[in-house]
Amino acid sequence: MTVFHRNETKAPLPGSLEGGVVAIGNFDGLHRGHQSVLNRALEEAQARGVPALVLTFEPHPRTAFRPDQPVFRLTPAPLKAKILEGLGFAAVIEYPFDRSFSALSAEAFVERVLIDWLKVGHVVTGFDFHFGKNREGGPAFLMKAGAEKGFGVTLVDAYRDENAEVISSSRIREHLCRGEVSEAAGLLGYHYTVQATVIGGKRLGRTLGYPTANMRLGREVTLATGIYAVRFRRPDGALHDGVASFGRRPTVDSDGEPLLETFLFDMTADLYGECSAVSFFSYLRPELKFDGLDALVVQMKQDEAEARAVLRGVTALGEIDARLCF
């Protein structure tokens, strides 16, 4: 799959991708609501015999306007591209979103991006998609532009969960902030997953018999601190169950930066420098401060046993889940 990054959006689009069906949106989380839009685009592309593309924006528009308050991204760009490739898209276009782009009129967006550059054949997007300066372009504008310029438009209605509530990225973030990873998975359609490079640590876990793969997730990640049952995927696709701690390690390093520290069951390989993924299956308990390392080790053994029990009974929630963590 081709991924067009910020500096490549001024280059001509390869001829093989022109005239395709383009799904447009931020798609942060690629949750079940997003999947309804994406699946419709894939179906439309297959029916027309043309490539399916995704047009998204980097950085997240809210982060572009408030860089000091970055958005908690459910699926940062590399992970999003990986998932979209697995779904069957031919290309992902990560269009640069900055103040200059935000000042572009809706008419100019259609002309410059959709027609001149993408040479779009059909657009699929959510019913509430707005674009252009001051969000002046909406569904009616897009439909009218398509009729005038010769491309089709499909608007997909809001996707609701089993309780008739609209599924949104903000709802999922709220669940994750409370450690409700099972509830988040129900809205995502897969288990919440992070991807990062394994870094070196203080190696305290190794001395306690619990060596960990440590990752920095970024200060904007507001996942609840605590202990989780997880599944770890290495770059070669190998999967390992484990138990992970996310937080500041109050017993040993109360002033440390937040880290995700994963102990992998029955695996001792050197993981430093690998860009791996961790999927969250269950929240076991909050972070606690113990009276010494002996008490900590006793609790870690209990956490390991509980995580093993949880992970023995898990099943894939769908296609994305099967690709990420099964």
Question: What is the topology?
Answer:
Blueprint: E1 2-4, E2 21-24, H1 32-48, E3 52-58, H2 61-65, H3 77-87, E4 91-96, H4 99-102, H5 106-117, E5 122-126, H6 139-149, E6 152-156, H7 169-177, H8 181-188, E7 193-197, H9 204-207, E8 213-215, E9 226-233, E10 239-247, E11 259-264, E12 275-285, H10 293-312, H11 319-325
Parallel strand pairs: 1-4, 2-3, 2-5, 3-4, 5-6
Antiparallel strand pairs: 7-12, 8-11, 9-10, 9-12, 10-11
- Proportion of residues in extended strands: 15-25%
| Number of structurally distinct domains | 2
Give the % helix: 25-40%
Mean pLDDT: 89
Helix/strand-derived category reads alpha/beta
β-strand number: 12
CATH class call of the largest domain: Mainly Beta
Along the chain, the helix and strand elements come as: EEHEHHEHHEHEHHEHEEEEEHH
Précis, in short:
The chain is α/β, with parallel strands linked by helices and 326 residues long.
Task: Describe what this molecule looks like in 3D.
This protein has two domains: 2-156, Rossmann fold; 169-325, Riboflavin kinase-like (Elongation Factor Tu (Ef-tu), domain 3, Beta Barrel), CATH 2.40.30. Helices cover 33% and strands 22% of the residues. It is built from eleven helices and twelve strands. The chain has helices spanning 32-48, 61-65, 77-87, 99-102, 106-117, 139-149, 169-177, 181-188, 204-207, 293-312, 319-325, and strands spanning 2-4, 21-24, 52-58, 91-96, 122-126, 152-156, 193-197, 213-215, 226-233, 239-247, 259-264, 275-285. The strands form two sheets. Strands 1-4-3-2-5-6 form a six-stranded parallel beta sheet, sandwiched between helices. It has a six-stranded antiparallel beta sheet with strand order 7-12-9-10-11-8. The longest helix has 20 residues, at 293-312. The radius of gyration is 22 Å and the shape is elongated. The two termini are 22 Å apart. The model has no long low-confidence stretch (mean pLDDT 89).
